[in-house]
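Worked example

This section walks through a single chain of length 148. The input is the sequence exactly as stored; nothing has been trimmed or padded.
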Amino acid sequence: MYHEPYRSQGPLDSLPAMARAALFAWVGIVVLQIVNVLTVGVSLVIFYPLQALLYIASGALAAHFAYEDVYQRDIPGSDIVREGAGSGLILSVLSWITYAVLIFALGLFTLGAGWLGYISFLVCVPGDLAVGALLGALGAWLFHRFWA
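Given that input, the structure is written out below as tokens.
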């Protein structure tokens, strides 16, 4: 008879897999956004590929959490990809909330010099949300294909 392994219950275990994965990856996003804001966006060319890797990692982590939650590996691939896409989308939203707060704080400390950040905010949000969801789905698909 198969017994489920003992898992300790943490404070994040009540959240869906996609939200837990996004929260873990958000730590890296916060660091990247702080450096990006402090360099006035000059480092975006370097940091956006790193942010894209965090979206992929978030999708893969969401897939891992989804497998872990059900203690089996019979989850259809489409459900796993949906978990990854949701995680990437949540991480994109968290990224842009972090960016908006940091630009607002920069505006307070520089007497409004951070207003250019709001222009990029309005222009780039829709594209970044789509990229986050697609890369999260890619991460989940890669996890499902190679590690599950």
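What to look for: The chain has a mean pLDDT of 84.
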